[in-house]
Amino acid sequence: MFLALKELKHGKFRFLMIGIITVLIAWLVFILSGLGNGLSTLSAATFKNMKADYVTFEEGFRASMSRSLLTESFVDELEKQDNVSSAAPMGATMATVLKSTPSKDSEKVDIAILGITAGSFLEPSIIEGNPLNNDKSLEVIANDTLKDKGFKIGDTLSIEGSLEKMKIIGFVENETYNHLPAIFTTLDKWRSIQFAAPGSDNSIKNPVNGIMLQGEDIDPQKLNDLFHNTETVTKAAAIQGMPGYKEENGTIMMMLAFLLAISAFVLAVFFYVLTLQKSNQFGILKAIGASNAFLGKTIMSQVFLLSFISIVVGILLTYGTALILPDGMPFSLDIKLVVIYAILLLVISILSSLISIRKITKIDPLQAIGRIE
């Protein structure tokens, strides 16, 4: 470590250049991670926030909320099953809304309308106003991002292409579905919007899109065998079944994987070139008794210190960047992901130095001394 620190101090400019490259790579990895996590959250925040463990869909519809149709009465059957502590129906649809009394600045807003049973475990906690009431189907609670569009408690909303109206009585936070702000309403209200066209409910009595289940030790296969034409999956699988979620997440992960692979290659080349430039010095050190293990530990220590400091600077720059990003940009830094990617970058940096260490073990002290004489 002593020799590593001495050399870092001696070659400040050279190591500073490598450090800047590492900082830029780390910065890009964390920024991309934040954007990926932000998009993922925007797409499925409502599903992720729900205190459910499993979801039951209609069989053959790839665990998709937008395609499945079940009858609400099925809730009672599911609640009688082993390890099912509670069950709650849910419906989802997309719509465009406008204030019933629009002003000059009013604009149409795309939203996700989610039908739930008021007071069930699917109803999110309100941060302002009042909760849902099953007896007041006109009243809804909305995600607080609608405030930025000029909506407030007491506003009545008209739904484009429908005679139905909704009145905002409360706001919730971090509730988005398919990248749209979520509006929670009663199941009756949701049905009147979703199945306004005659026959669109496929003649199913009290239709819902899915039924959320609570219970840690539920056996999905047992439920699938017991109830034909249904498919019970974990909440994680249901999130993957949301339209576009898997493709969007896969794209971001692919970009991150390529970035990490390129980072490993770039860092390996930098450290290798640096080692080549110091071949003579390493030869002299070996001639006066320095072992390969000692020199290898020195290189490893240098890479570790340089990478650690660069990654920390990259993290600080990422958090600083997050402060100046526009409010509407889907950017969310998850501390767990930041730690995981930081460790991954550190491991990649250290592995990249192994090529340099192997080069050092091949250096012949006599030839190295000969070249400097």
UniProtKB/TrEMBL annotation:
Bilayer topology annotation: Multi-pass membrane protein
Domain MacB-like periplasmic core residues, every copy: 20-191
Subcellular location: Cell membrane
Residue intervals of the ABC3 transporter permease C-terminal domain: 254-365
Single GO cellular component term: plasma membrane
Stored Pfam families: FtsX, MacB_PCD
Major subcellular location class: membrane
Statement: the UniProt record of this protein carries the keyword ATP-binding: no
Keyword line: Cell membrane, Membrane, Transmembrane, Transmembrane helix, Transport
Residues annotated as transmembrane: 15-35, 252-274, 303-325, 337-357
Family, as annotated: Belongs to the ABC-4 integral membrane protein family. HrtB subfamily.
Its biological purpose: Part of the ABC transporter complex hrt involved in hemin import. Responsible for the translocation of the substrate across the membrane.
Complex and partners: The complex is composed of two ATP-binding proteins (HrtA), two transmembrane proteins (HrtB) and a solute-binding protein.
Name this protein carries in UniProt: Putative hemin transport system permease protein HrtB
Organism of provenance: Peribacillus asahii
Organism lineage: Bacteria, Bacillati, Bacillota, Bacilli, Bacillales
